[in-house]
């Protein structure tokens, strides 16, 4: 024993007695408090009770899995709902997502749906569903299938209490359950006359925490595939553990965002749930995803509850996408002449010209190629093919060129003036527009002109997620107030609900995952406009103004009623500080800051220096790099504040200063009229969202089809020594129609690549230049704006017009055959 002084041990003993006694009293209180009873019984049944292999007489009469289940659930059937309420996370979310999908699909199909809840237990989910759709009215029939008699008894009581006549409890093994065996179905005349051979199918199947409890899961999933109607919906919520190694090569799961579970958690949860007869082997989820097409897929943890990993998955029959749909997606993405983009017309055999036929067999979007590859490999198509809105095209999320952005966007708001674009370009109904997505604001501005089609392109997947969110807000016909909260103020108190209930049916699986994970954006103090790379600029200016005691002045500046008043505040109070040289030294000339916050890469900075060098030479003065940057900022800001009103016109700077838009000052797409136009069904039918490099996308667009390209300042980023700019210009030339225009902006007054445009069949004109004191647009951030008009075809481009698509030949599937087989 320990050798301790006797006083200490006496004091120690007293403490032990005191605290031990207290704990015992507390425990006894807990034990006997009624509120805690259910938990104790759950605990007892799970861990203390000797495993009951079914020794009670009535349990003995059962056999196999049913006997085991009954041994487990009999003692807890009554307390099941109380004890599982917390543990089984995500059931409500799953139901809400499924309800939203059902409602979205209901418009198209007639008749009330039939719902089968497999492993439905106590019927909790069916009652809960009533929060989202009226169960007794919405469904023609609901079947709860469960193998445990005691849980079935609880659910029968529940539905008797609720008085729902269309809900039926079937105590049967899910493997053998079929609808037409059940007499009730035969009674309902809507679904085929009694005794007819016509198999009745379910329109909606759910599995909530039951897949992990069914030993023979392959056969249950197979039988559900038989049970589900061709256009039915299946949804599932369950625990899982999985390592990135096992799923990273699968391209049909609709995205891998936060799916990986670390080694320790995998081991721990698997062992833990084993005790509870819940099996977390990976094959369960994998087989589900393999057997069906994925609509939405999300990986979740509840951190206030031990962070147990669980997933929510919505799927459909693999064959739910038709060849017509796949070809239409493809036609829109490639500007194929065979299908008119808005009205799908098939003109297969009367192929117009031989040249066009070449285009048809050779130009395929990457999305369509993916479909062909997956069909050849006998796996489901990528999730984008099963989505309700098909504007987003499939891309391989694992490529380093996409992962380099760290799953975040740089631009939370666009930093180019679309009103100026429209003034220069006059986009109209016949235009095919090719544009950078950025924050999506300008794409929406172009969409307001209703061009024939728009190709929005971004290499950063998250920029396209942001565009998708905006598109979904319109497609879901959210009221203007919600739209305003989301993108006007950047804050929405119910974003998560809005996402699950309204937006999800219009989002791609990946965009959904992204926004589910980033739902906090809209609850945070800074809101949407203090996220992304641009947040650094917004936050820094906010912080600086606070530190310098200028917040009042900034507010006055933003609310100044006239230009005169605005100028006065600027000149007297703000300019001396904001444009002081020391601030510029510390902040603006800092390379890290330029790149991270303002998105100015070194190549672009060099262009600014070059112009400054030329100006210095003309003046006969010396060139100081830091002063050059400062002068650039002065040339940007001074004219803006002198000439545009922050109160009701210049929403770009207003946002930077205030962190949100105002009712009088916002991008055009946030107006009430725009809301009306863009909320109309089919408003974005001609839109395709590509996640790829420019060159890659241009190479797959039918030659000579694009009439307008807006490529922002993106050419500035290229290395003048490299070949990228020339390649891109060649690709632009090939895809652009004769007379088509490319609009670009540059930080240089005469960018080096203009000569390359001229050399490759473009006539270039500088339509605006920012010589000191002039304002070229409301952003005024670039030194020049150019329009390059295609006047000739670059001979080298035609010579190189090799089909970029080899994959079709690789899998050796004849084109028409493939298109046929898309029907499966
Ligand atoms: C964890 S409970 C989930 C119950 C309910 N879906 C919920 O979310 O509360 C799993 C259910 O699956 C049922 N189950 C297990 N194997 C089954 C089988 N082969 N056929 C039908 N039901 C089964 C069990 O009886 C149990 O009710
Ligand atoms: C996590 O669990 C807590 C406690 O049960 C619950 O209040 C909360 O809503 C859950 N969060 C999510 C995102 O499901
Ligand atoms: C998707 O994965 C399968 C194998 O799992 C592969 O055969 C197929 O080529 C892949 N598809 C694409 C588009 O990469």
What is the secondary structure topology, with strand pairs?
Layout: H1 6-32, H2 37-48, H3 57-60, H4 64-73, H5 80-87, H6 91-106, E1 114-118, H7 124-129, H8 135-138, E2 141-146, H9 149-162, E3 167-171, H10 183-187, E4 202-208, H11 217-227, E5 228-239, H12 244-247, H13 263-275, H14 282-291, E6 292-301, E7 309-317, H15 323-334, H16 354-362, H17 366-376, H18 400-403, H19 418-425, E8 432-436, H20 441-447, E9 453-458, H21 461-475, H22 480-489, H23 495-503, H24 509-517, H25 535-547, H26 551-559, H27 563-578, H28 581-588, H29 591-598, H30 602-619, H31 625-643, H32 651-658, H33 672-678, E10 687-691, H34 694-699, E11 706-710, H35 724-735, E12 736-746, H36 754-759, E13 762-769, E14 784-790, H37 795-799, H38 807-810, H39 815-821
Parallel strand pairs: 1-2, 1-4, 2-3, 4-5, 8-9, 8-11, 9-10, 11-12
Antiparallel strand pairs: 5-7, 6-7, 12-14, 13-14
This protein binds S-adenosylmethionine and 2-acetamido-2-deoxy-beta-D-glucopyranose (NAG) (2 copies).
S-adenosylmethionine binds next to helix 4, helix 7 and strand 2.
InterPro entries: DUF3419, SAM-dependent_MTases_sf
Transmembrane segments: 12-32
Pfam family, one: DUF3419
């Amino acid at each position: 024993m320990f050798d301790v002084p006797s006083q200490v041990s006496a004091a120690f003993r007293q403490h032990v007695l005191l605290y031990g006694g207290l704990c015992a009293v507390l425990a006894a209180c807990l034990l006997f408090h009624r509120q805690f009873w259910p938990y104790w019984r759950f605990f007892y049944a799970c861990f203390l009770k000797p495993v009951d292999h079914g020794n009670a007489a009535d349990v003995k009469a059962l056999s196999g899995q049913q006997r085991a289940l009954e041994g487990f659930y009999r003692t807890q059937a009554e307390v099941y709902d109380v004890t599982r309420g917390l543990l089984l996370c995500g059931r409500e979310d799953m139901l809400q997502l499924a309800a939203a999908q059902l409602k979205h699909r209901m418009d198209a199909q007639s008749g009330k749906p039939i719902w089968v809840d497999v492993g439905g237990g106590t019927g909790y989910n069916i009652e809960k569903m009533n929060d989202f759709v009226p169960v007794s009215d919405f469904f023609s029939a609901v079947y709860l299938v469960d193998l445990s008699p005691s849980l079935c008894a609880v659910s029968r009581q529940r539905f008797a209490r609720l008085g729902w006549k269309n809900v039926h409890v079937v105590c049967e093994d899910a493997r053998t359950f079929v609808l037409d065996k059940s007499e009730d179905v035969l009674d309902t005349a809507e679904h085929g006359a009694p005794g007819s051979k016509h198999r009745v199918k379910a329109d909606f199947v759910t599995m909530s925490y039951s897949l992990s409890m069914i030993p023979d899961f392959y056969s249950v999933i197979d039988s559900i595939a038989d049970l589900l109607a061709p256009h039915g919906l299946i949804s599932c919520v369950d625990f899982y553990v999985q390592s990135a190694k096992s799923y990273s090569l699968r391209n049909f799961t609709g995205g891998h965002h936060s799916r990986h579970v670390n080694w320790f958690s995998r081991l721990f949860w698997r062992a833990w749930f084993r005790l509870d007869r819940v099996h977390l082997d990976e094959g369960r989820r994998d087989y589900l995803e393999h057997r069906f097409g994925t609509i939405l897929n999300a990986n979740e943890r509840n951190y206030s509850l031990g962070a147990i990993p669980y997933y929510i998955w919505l799927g459909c029959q693999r064959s739910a996408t038709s060849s017509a749909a796949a070809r239409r997606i493809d036609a829109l993405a490639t500007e194929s002449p065979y299908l008119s983009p808005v009205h799908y017309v098939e003109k297969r055999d009367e192929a117009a010209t031989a040249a066009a036929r070449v285009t048809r067999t050779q130009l395929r979007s990457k999305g369509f190629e993916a479909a062909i590859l997956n069909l050849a490999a006998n796996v489901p198509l990528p999730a984008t093919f099963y989505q309700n809105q098909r504007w987003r095209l499939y891309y391989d999320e694992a490529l380093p060129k996409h992962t380099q952005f760290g799953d975040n966007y740089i631009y939370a708001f666009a930093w180019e003036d679309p009103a100026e674009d429209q003034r220069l370009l006059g986009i109209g109904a016949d235009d095919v527009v090719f544009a950078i997505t950025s924050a999506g604001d300008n794409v929406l501005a172009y969409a307001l002109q209703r061009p024939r089609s728009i190709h929005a392109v971004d290499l950063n997947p998250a920029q396209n997620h942001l565009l998708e969110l905006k598109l979904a807000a319109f497609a879901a016909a959210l009221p203007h107030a919600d739209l305003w909260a989301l993108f006007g103020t950047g804050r929405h108190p119910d974003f998560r609900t809005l996402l699950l209930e309204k937006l999800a049916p219009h989002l791609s699986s990946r965009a959904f995952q992204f926004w589910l994970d980033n739902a906090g954006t809209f609850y945070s103090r800074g809101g949407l406009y203090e996220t992304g790379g641009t947040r650094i600029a917004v936050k820094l200016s906010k912080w600086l103004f606070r530190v310098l005691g200028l917040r009042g002045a900034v507010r006055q500046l933003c609310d100044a009623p006239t230009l005169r008043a605005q100028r006065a505040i600027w000149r007297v109070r703000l300019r001396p500080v904001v444009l002081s040289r020391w601030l510029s030294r510390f902040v603006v000339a800092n390379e890290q800051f330029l790149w991270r916050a303002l998105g100015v890469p070194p190549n672009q900075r060099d262009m600014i220096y070059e112009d400054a060098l030329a100006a210095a030479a003309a003046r006969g003065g010396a060139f100081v790099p830091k002063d050059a940057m400062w002068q650039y900022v002065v040339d940007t800001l001074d004219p803006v504040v002198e000439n545009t009103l922050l109160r009701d016109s210049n929403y770009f700077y207003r946002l930077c200063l205030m962190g949100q838009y105002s009712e009088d000052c916002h991008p055009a797409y946030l107006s009430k009229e725009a809301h009306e136009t863009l909320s109309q069904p089919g408003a974005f039918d001609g839109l395709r969202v590509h996640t790829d490099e420019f060159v890659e996308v241009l190479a797959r667009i039918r030659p000579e089809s694009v009439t307008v390209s807006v490529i922002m300042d993106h050419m500035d980023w290229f290395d003048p020594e490299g070949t990228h700019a020339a390649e891109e210009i060649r690709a632009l030339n090939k895809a652009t129609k004769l007379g088509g225009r490319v609009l670009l902006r540059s930080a240089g007054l005469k960018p080096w690549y203009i000569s390359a445009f001229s050399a490759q069949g473009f006539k270039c004109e500088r339509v605006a230049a920012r010589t000191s004191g002039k304002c070229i647009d409301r952003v005024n951030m670039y030194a020049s704006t150019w329009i390059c008009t295609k006047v000739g075809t670059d001979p080298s481009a035609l010579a190189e017009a090799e089909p970029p698509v080899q994959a079709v030949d690789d899998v050796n599937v004849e084109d028409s055959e493939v298109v046929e087989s898309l029907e499966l």
